[in-house]
Amino acid sequence: MASKNWAVLGGATAAVLAGVYVLWGPRGKQKVCSKDVCPGLVNVGNTCFLNGVLQAMAPCHSIVKWLGDFIDKRITEKYTHYLAFILVKVLKGLNNESIEMSDPYCPSEVLEALRTRRWVISSEQQDSHELFHVLTETLSEETTQFPRVISLFDVKGLEELSKKSQTDSTAVSRSRVLLPILPNRDTSHPFRGLLASQLQCKQCGYKCPVKHDTFDSLSLSIPQDWGQLSLDRLLRHYVKPESVLNVECEGCATSKTLSAANTLPKSTFVKQLTIGKLPQCLCIHIKRTIWLDDGMPMKRQQFIAFPEILVLDQYVYHKRCAGDIRGTTGLFGGKILTESASSLSPSTLQQPDTAQKLPNVSEHVELPHSLPTDSDVQTPSTSQKLPKFDASVELSRSVPQYQDLYKLMSVVVHLGDVFNGHFVTYRRACPENDQQSSGKWLYTSDELVKRVPVSEVLCANAYMLFYEKM
Question: N or C end: fewer C-beta atoms under 10 angstroms in the chain?
Fold first, then answer.
């Protein structure tokens, strides 16, 4: 009987020891990411839209550095609750700069940080471009310092002008009255740029003051029936002058007598849009969703050719002398180049033919009831050998002429139709030897990461393009 009890006790002890070993025993080693590739990202349920944007932002050196500098300035505060801190930790991990990141890595903390800031992000499929703006808008809010709201019960605080008004040395109105304290932003993120728009009268040449608007990305529409499309043609269509009818003109009023009602004469104005300030990192969004006459959304599958080196000199607003306005062949409000170009070809710096007439945007465009599918779209074959591009040789010839050069860093591609699909990203590999960017390219699809040639990248059906200033 005693031997039987000892056997039962020994079996129970063995079972307990086995359970302890399973629960608290040695763990298997986590997969360490190779230096040739980057870590993958776990899809926690339709989060490919997040994984694609994070992989696209990681090779942009400017945004990673800006996030790090932003956190360094707030190291004495509770910096761990900032979205910037979570982003810089994830982006550095995706560049193999963190020994704590496993492969694949779960980026759910980014979504949790956005939800704590009252962004509603459901578990359904989302758009990568919309998420990108959610990230940039949150970063803008974190960099803005809002003045403290004084309670009405704080009588002493209400009597102190220094807590509710600016000093004389900062700002003062024309009536010498102190102005209230306004929100202050110490710095803007690298994706923030300015658009410059201006109206000019066709009849008398009077120009309205230039109006500036901020942007975090440029959304380019795909015109109808243009044949072969390129990023250059989409940019030209974006800044094409538009006619605005029945605008009151102060210039015409100086040369004409006013009516009995003292109303300004109306004229037709030309509205020109250019880029007032280029960002350090440029995000270009290609709008592929259109709405048909019957109210159904459709996705446009056309291939848009894009360069590895982008030139934006001719799209930047530049003040010119009054005598140079008329008779110029360049864009109104843009720089006049001796040779017009928006991209540096891998084999030559010749500008594609831009003398072709662009369609008039004011004309009625008949939308098709059916759009071409992937099989109907003529996309360059990835087996095509592209001419080699020696950046050091080609750029040395063009740098004296071009100032606003941008290098392609990543490409976000949407696979599928307008109702469901999957986001993948082509991105530059992790830099080596303290370089800011690498010449190697990676294909990332959630946890899958593999090396690809640059020819495959340039043949991708791009949805978002990320460029960084050189």
Answer: N
Provide the residue type at 326 as one letter: R
Supply 365's token pair: 């465009």
How confident is the model at residue 169, as a pLDDT? 56
DSSP state, residue 163:
G
Q: What is the mean pLDDT of the chain?
A: 74
Distance CA 167, CA 163 (A): 10
Residues 463, 128 contacting (CB under 8 angstroms): yes
The backbone torsions φ and ψ at residue 273, rounded to the nearest 5 degrees and listed phi first, read: -115, 130
CA-to-CA separations, 264 to 140, 201, 245, in angstroms, rounded:
41, 13, 14
Structure letter (DSSP) for residue 390:
-
What's the CA angle centered on 97, arms 92 and 103, to 5 degrees? 85
The amino acid sitting at 172 is V
Q: 435-451 burial, b for 16+ CB within 10 Å, e for fewer?
A: eebbebbbbbbbeebee
Nearest to 298 by CA among 224, 360, 219, 217: 224
Rounded Cα–Cα distance for residues 323 and 361 (Å): 29
Phi and psi torsions of 353, nearest 5°: -60, 115
How far CA 406 is from CA of 283, 308, 328, 362, 470, in Å, comes to 11, 8, 26, 32, 5
Find where tokens 């990248």 sit.
Answer: 457
Confidence at residue 80, expressed as pLDDT on a 0 to 100 scale: 80
What is the biggest distance separating any 2 CA atoms in the chain, rounded to whole angstroms?
A: 123
Give tens-digit pLDDT for 408-464.
999 999 999 888 899 999 999 987 655 666 789 999 999 999 999 999 999 999 999
pTM of full prediction above 0.85: no
Q: What is the pLDDT of residue 194?
A: 93
Q: How far apart are CA 71 and CA 124, in angstroms?
A: 32
Give exposure, 138-162, as e/b (b: 16+ Cβ within 10 Å). bbbebbeeeeeeeeeeeeeeeeeee
Q: Encode pLDDT of 266-288 as tens digits.
A: 889 999 999 999 999 999 999 99
Cα 446 from Cα 105, distance rounded (Å): 10
Calculate what percentage of the chain has a pLDDT beyond 90: 36
pLDDT at 436: 61
